[in-house]
Each structure stands twice: as structure tokens, then as C-alpha cells.
């Protein structure tokens, strides 16, 4: 395992910019998640590190070595693709052994066998080693794909939305397994996703990408409670952060220049009151909690509520802010 | 997505529909097989039977056609034939019954061998070059790729006869006319366009993530091509090889113009088998029957590759 640094990396495809001046250091043994919507440059960043694309500008070092111009095979990275991951003409065993049999490594058969079986156990696929890779369920395929990266001990593991094609239950399971394995191996890992839950639960640090730029990087807690701007604030939190004009609700202590107020559930205090300043527009019952849709004049907002809160559609309430997030006209955070 | 169809499925055709469809398919197969069956039957007829009118469906089979195909014969007096010892083979016997003796082997096997060498040689070359070119067009940013692909295809846009004379003159200057090498190069040139177009389609279907994964896993591009792309392209390569082989095997126009002796292939040779007093139809039919065998064998051998749909099973779209 090793440290990987990006310094001022840029890449454009024809007219469209994919990655714009990104600098990032992934420390040895760290789990970094890049979070951003489709087209934010997440995958391109991974491909640049792997050597599948060449950057237009900037420097990439892996374990202190500048890898400019180095072929993917010599960079000592492992990659898990979002899909098309397994070689369809090979069995599970052969898929796992494939990286170890490469001319770059040339391990002994006994060593390969031991390593394959160890990893197969780790990703819990050891009972299907002789299956054709086409005869697996989606979750099994993705476990093999992750296993194929893990058989090696590269400088860094690069994972491109490895769980996105799976159903919710499997995703939750594999999320835990992946974090457990990363802990066990002390692996350096750069993980790309658009799923905020994956980012929040697995990352040591989250990097938020938007339109090719690295907007903010920090621990999940930092990113959540201390977003640099509106875009970052909007990436995290369920339900989505409510953006309200300054002065709509009482209880805030807005600094000068505040244009927009961002209010998540924990920033809103509700008390039943008539006439109140807001009205319950709709209630979604999720079982363990309720989504309250609230109308304040012309504005609508969504917040979570305890399922025992005695409240009904059409009820009047008093809504107050408590330490919300303040943003200026340009969307930058004010404190 | 499941391939299983339930008994109640609305898309499942009824038993009657299936039966009618089956009958149509069988009828069509029979109709297309009639000429082949006719050639096969004719090859076992005697020369008079082969041209009798109305045509004979029931006849006494004889190997005379095959004997005539493989031998050259000279007419002798009955007295001379009487003076010879007992016949050496069944062909000897048949030939003597026609007041002739075997003078030597015919040119059929040498021509057949030419066909084998030229057809398989050019097929191998065309598929080999076609696979590499198709991979290049599929995976790299080739300048003017579309124009080049069109240019490659344009080599097939005119009939062979249109270029036959320039090629004939060129080959004469280069000393390539009537040589196996010349014919291999010519058929390769014609087939490579087909191979590039067909194989590009197949290779485009193979996601590049496979090679990228292999390259990250420690393989060079060429090694990744051999270990990952080729095994998945076998279906396409087999299909392309069959098309190329059929063309090179059956090609007549170039062969008749550019070969006459040592490099002559079977298609121009077979119609020249002339017996006494006109065409020796049983011998021609025998030559044609044997001529069909290699293609038949090759197709049967590659049938599995053609039908196997393994390639895209692991892809989750």
C-alpha cells in the first residue's frame, strides 16, 4: 500500500472538460470516496490514475513515483469496474487467478492457488470457484470482481461504483464487507460513487466533485455539518436540504450578506400552535419515521418527524430555525 | 430476463402454427437440396444414363464417373485389351468394358490440392489481417477511420471482370500469374474487406473494459488482445472464416483468367473434363461432389463456434 497524489490534474475530451485542475492526496491506508453526480469527472479521475487515460496537465505520483507515461500494467493499481467486470470465457477461479498469472508477475501455481482460495473466502465465493463467471448472480459477480482486485497487493485499489448495479439489500451487505476487508488489509482505496450513503458509511474522507472540480474534501462529518457551499450541502442529507430565502423563518442569526438559508431536519424545530407560521401539507409514513411536507406561505419544505408526533395533515404549526447554514448570493457558505 | 416460456405465454405459437411452419421449412430444405442430390446421383450414373430423357431416378449405380474423373484413358482395339492380363482394379475393369485402357492419373487431385492451398491460405491470411485491422478500427482513434473503412469496402464494389485485365497485366509483369502465391494474395485482398467489416462489428460488441481490466492486471495490450479479446471473438472469427473460405473456394472468374496450368483451381478445371463425344457428365458430377466435401467438413467443424452464444453472458447492462 502506498500514498497516491494528484497535483493539478486536468483532462478534456474534445470540447468537454472532464477533470479540471484536481489536486488530491490519498494517504497510505486511507479510504477516500469521491462523490458527485454523473458527469462530474469521478470515473475519469480513476482512469487517469490507472493510466487508461493520459492527463492534459498535472502530475500523478504513486508511492512517490511519477507515473506519467507509465503503462497501466506497471502502475501497480487494481481497478474494479462498474460493470463488464468478469471475463466471460473463464471460470470464477480463473478470473481470480488472472492478475496473478500475468507476465508482469509470474507467480508459482501453488502461490496463486493459495492466494485465490484465501481471497475467495474473504469475498465469500469459495463455494463457486469452478462455476463459469456467467453463471453467477449479480451480487456474486461483483464479489468476484472485487476479489479479482484483492488477490493483488497493489499500491492502491480504485473502485468505480462497484455496487451501483446491485439491489439495495446486497448493496448494504457488500458495503459492510468492503469496509471490513479494507480495515483488515489496511488498504489504500479510492472509491467513486454517487450514493451518499456509501460515501458517509465507508469513507475516511469524502471528496465532493462537481463539473470536474474538487469542491471540498474532508471527513464525512465535516462535509455534512460544514459544507463549503450550496452544492456540497445539497449532496448530503436525507431528506434533501431545504433552501429558503433569508427572513422566511424566525430563529436565525444570519450574518450580513446572507441570501439563502439551508435547513436540514436538525435545523428545524416544530411545535403545534395555532395560528402558527406554517401548515402540514402532506405526511409520508415510512414506518420508523415520517416525512413531513410543510408549507410556509408559497414555500414548501420537507423534514423528518418522530412517528409518535401527534400531527395531521392540515394542522398549523410553529416552525423555527436552530443554527441553520447560511449562504451568500454566490452560493458560498457564510459563518 | 428469463428465456423460459410458460405454456400459457401469449407469444408461444399454437401447435398448428408450429406444424405448418415446420412443413414449410422442410419443403424449402428439400427444394434447395434437389440440385445437390441430383449432382450426387449423376456422379454414380453411367454416361448414357446421365443424359437419358426422361431423366432416370432409378438406375444401376456405377463408379465409372469417379474412374473417369481420376484417370486419363486411351482407346484400344478389343484384341489388344484381350491380350492384357486380368484387370488391376475396378476402374481398370470399367475402362476396359468401354474398349479403353487407363493411361495415367488425371489432373483432378493436383487441381484439388491447388484449391485447398489457395482457399485455406487466403482465408487464414484474410482473417488474420482482418482481425488485427478490425481491432485497430474498433479500439483506436484512427485518423479518417470512416473514409478508410469505406475505401476498404469499395474494393468489393465492382465485378471481378472489371479489374481482371489490369490485374492480369500486373501479375504477368510480376511473374505472379498462374502461381499459388498470386492467387492467395488476390483472394486475400478481396476477402480482407469482408473480414474487416464483419469482425469490426463483432469486436465492437466486446466491451473494452475487459482489455482495460487485463491491462491494469499486468498485461500488455497485445497480451490482453490474445487472452481476452480473441477468446470472445471466436464466434465472429469462425463465421468470417467460413464466408472467406466459401468465396475463395468457389471463385471462378479470376481463377479462369489468371490460372491455366500449375496453379489452376478446381472451379475452372471441372468443366473441362470432356469425355469422348461430348461432356462426361458423371465425371463432372463426381468432381463437383468431391469438391463440396471440404466446405461441408469445415462448416460442420465450426458449427459449434457459430452457434455458441457464450460471449455476452457476463455483461450486465
From TrEMBL, chain A:
Q: How does it sit in the membrane?
A: Peripheral membrane protein
Cellular component GO terms, alphabetically? Answer: ATP-binding cassette (ABC) transporter complex, substrate-binding subunit-containing
Cellular localization per UniProt = Cell inner membrane
GO MF terms listed in the record are:
ABC-type transporter activity; ATP binding; ATP hydrolysis activity
InterPro entries in the record: AAA+_ATPase (IPR003593), ABC_transporter-like_ATP-bd (IPR003439), ABC_transporter-like_CS (IPR017871), ABC_transpr_MalK-like (IPR015855), ABC_transpr_MalK/UgpC-like (IPR047641), Mo/tungstate-bd_C_term_dom (IPR008995), NA-bd_OB-fold (IPR012340), P-loop_NTPase (IPR027417)
Q: Where are the coiled-coil regions? A: none
Any Pfam family matching the protein: ABC_tran
Q: Which domain of life is it from?
A: Bacteria
GO biological process terms held by the UniProt record: carbohydrate transport
Could you say which residues form the signal peptide? none
- Which keywords does this chain's UniProt record carry? ATP-binding, Cell inner membrane, Cell membrane, Membrane, Nucleotide-binding, Sugar transport, Transport
Q: Which family does it belong to?
A: Belongs to the ABC transporter superfamily.
Name the PANTHER family on file.
MALTODEXTRIN IMPORT ATP-BINDING PROTEIN MSMX, OSMOPROTECTIVE COMPOUNDS UPTAKE ATP-BINDING PROTEIN GGTA
State what protein this is by name: Multiple sugar transport system ATP-binding protein
Q: Which organism is it from?
A: Rhizobium giardinii
From TrEMBL, chain B:
Q: Does the keyword Cell membrane apply?
A: yes
Bilayer topology: Multi-pass membrane protein
Location of this chain's protein in the cell: Cell membrane
Q: Which family does it belong to?
A: Belongs to the binding-protein-dependent transport system permease family.
Q: What is this protein called?
A: Multiple sugar transport system permease protein
Signal peptide stretch: none
Instruction: Please provide, in alphabetical order, the Gene Ontology terms of the cellular component aspect for this entry.
Output: plasma membrane
Q: Which PROSITE patterns match?
A: ABC_TM1
Transmembrane spans: 20-41, 116-136, 148-168, 180-199, 228-249, 281-302
Which Pfam families does this UniProt record tie to the protein?
BPD_transp_1
Tell me the Gene Ontology biological-process terms attached to this UniProt entry.
Answer: transmembrane transport
The answer, when asked if Amino-acid biosynthesis is one of the entry's keywords, is: no
Q: Which residues form the ABC transmembrane type-1 domain?
A: 112-302
Tell me which InterPro entries the record gives. BP-dep_ABC_trans_perm, MetI-like, MetI-like_sf
Annotated organism of origin: Rhizobium giardinii
Alphabetized, the UniProt keywords read: Cell membrane, Membrane, Sugar transport, Transmembrane, Transmembrane helix, Transport
Amino acid at each position: 500500500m502506498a500514498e497516491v497524489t494528484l497535483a493539478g490534474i486536468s483532462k478534456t475530451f474534445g470540447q468537454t472538460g472532464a477533470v479540471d485542475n484536481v489536486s488530491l492526496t490519498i494517504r497510505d491506508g486511507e479510504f477516500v470516496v469521491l462523490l458527485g453526480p454523473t458527469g462530474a469527472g469521478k470515473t475519469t479521475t480513476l482512469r487517469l490514475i490507472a493510466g487508461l487515460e493520459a492527463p492534459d496537465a498535472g502530475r500523478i505520483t504513486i508511492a512517490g513515483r511519477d507515473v506519467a507515461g507509465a503503462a497501466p500494467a506497471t502502475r501497480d493499481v487494481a481497478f474494479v469496474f462498474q460493470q463488464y467486470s468478469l471475463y466471460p470465457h473463464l471460470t470464477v477461479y480463473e478470473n481470480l487467478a488472472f492478475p496473478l498469472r500475468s507476465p508482469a508477475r509470474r507467480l508459482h501455481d501453488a502461490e496463486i492457488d493459495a492466494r485465490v482460495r484465501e481471497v475467495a473466502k474473504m469475498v465469500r465465493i469459495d463455494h463457486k470457484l469452478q462455476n463459469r463467471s456467467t453463471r453467477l448472480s449479480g451480487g456474486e459477480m461483483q464479489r468476484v470482481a472485487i476479489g479479482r482486485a484483492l488477490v493483488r497487493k497493489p499500491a492502491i485499489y480504485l473502485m468505480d461504483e462497484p455496487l451501483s448495479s446491485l439491489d439495495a439489500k446486497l448493496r448494504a451487505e457488500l458495503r459492510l464487507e468492503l469496509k471490513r476487508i479494507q480495515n483488515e488489509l489496511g488498504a489504500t482505496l479510492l472509491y467513486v460513487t454517487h450514493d451518499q450513503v456509501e460515501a458517509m458509511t465507508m469513507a475516511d474522507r469524502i471528496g465532493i466533485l462537481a463539473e470536474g472540480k474538487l469542491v471540498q474534501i474532508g471527513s464525512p462529518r465535516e462535509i455534512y455539518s460544514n459544507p463549503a457551499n450550496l452544492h456540497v450541502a445539497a449532496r448530503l442529507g436525507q431528506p434533501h436540504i431545504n433552501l429558503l430565502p433569508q427572513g422566511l423563518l424566525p430563529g436565525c442569526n444570519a450574518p450580513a450578506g446572507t441570501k439563502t438559508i439551508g435547513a436540514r431536519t436538525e435545523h428545524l424545530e416544530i411545535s403545534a400552535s395555532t395560528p402558527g407560521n406554517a401548515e402540514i401539507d402532506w405526511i409520508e409514513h415510512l414506518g420508523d419515521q415520517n416525512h413531513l411536507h410543510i408549507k410556509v406561505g408559497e414555500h414548501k419544505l420537507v423534514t423528518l418527524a418522530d412517528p409518535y408526533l401527534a400531527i395531521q395533515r392540515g394542522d398549523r404549526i410553529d416552525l423555527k430555525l436552530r443554527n441553520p447554514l447560511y449562504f451568500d448570493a454566490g452560493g458560498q457558505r457564510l459563518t | 430476463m428469463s428465456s423460459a416460456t410458460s405454456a400459457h405465454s401469449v407469444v408461444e405459437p399454437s401447435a398448428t402454427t408450429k406444424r405448418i411452419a415446420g412443413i414449410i421449412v422442410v419443403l424449402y430444405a428439400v427444394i434447395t437440396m434437389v440440385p445437390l442430390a441430383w449432382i450426387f446421383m449423376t456422379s454414380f450414373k453411367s454416361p448414357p444414363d446421365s443424359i437419358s430423357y426422361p431423366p432416370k431416378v432409378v438406375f444401376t449405380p456405377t463408379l465409372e464417373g469417379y474412374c473417369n474423373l481420376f484417370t486419363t484413358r486411351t482407346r484400344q482395339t478389343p484384341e489388344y485389351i484381350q491380350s492384357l492380363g486380368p484387370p488391376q482394379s475396378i476402374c481398370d475393369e470399367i475402362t476396359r468394358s468401354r474398349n479403353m485402357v487407363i493411361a495415367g492419373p488425371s489432373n483432378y487431385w493436383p487441381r484439388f490440392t491447388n484449391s485447398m492451398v489457395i482457399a485455406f491460405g487466403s482465408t487464414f491470411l484474410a482473417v488474420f489481417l482482418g482481425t488485427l485491422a478490425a481491432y485497430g478500427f474498433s479500439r483506436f482513434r484512427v485518423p479518417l477511420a470512416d473514409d478508410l473503412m469505406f475505401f476498404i469496402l469499395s474494393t468489393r464494389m465492382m465485378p471481378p471482370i472489371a479489374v481482371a485485365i489490369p490485374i492480369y497485366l500486373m501479375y504477368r509483369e510480376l511473374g505472379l500469374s498462374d502461381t499459388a502465391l498470386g492467387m492467395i494474395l488476390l483472394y486475400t485482398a478481396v476477402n480482407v474487406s469482408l473480414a474487416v467489416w464483419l469482425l469490426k462489428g463483432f469486436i465492437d460488441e466486446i466491451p473494452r473494459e475487459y482489455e482495460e481490466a487485463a491491462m491494469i492486471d499486468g498485461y500488455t495490450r497485445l497480451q490482453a488482445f490474445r487472452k481476452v479479446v480473441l477468446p470472445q471473438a471466436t464466434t465472429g472469427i469462425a463465421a468470417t472464416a467460413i464466408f472467406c473460405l466459401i468465396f475463395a473456394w468457389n471463385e471462378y472468374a479470376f481463377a479462369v483468367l489468371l490460372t491455366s496450368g500449375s496453379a489452376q483451381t478446381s472451379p475452372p478445371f471441372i468443366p473441362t473434363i470432356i469425355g469422348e463425344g461430348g461432356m462426361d457428365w458423371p465425371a463432372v458430377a463426381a468432381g463437383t461432389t468431391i469438391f463440396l466435401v471440404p466446405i461441408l467438413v469445415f462448416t460442420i467443424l465450426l458449427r459449434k463456434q457459430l452457434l455458441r452464444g457464450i460471449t455476452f453472458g457476463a455483461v450486465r447492462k
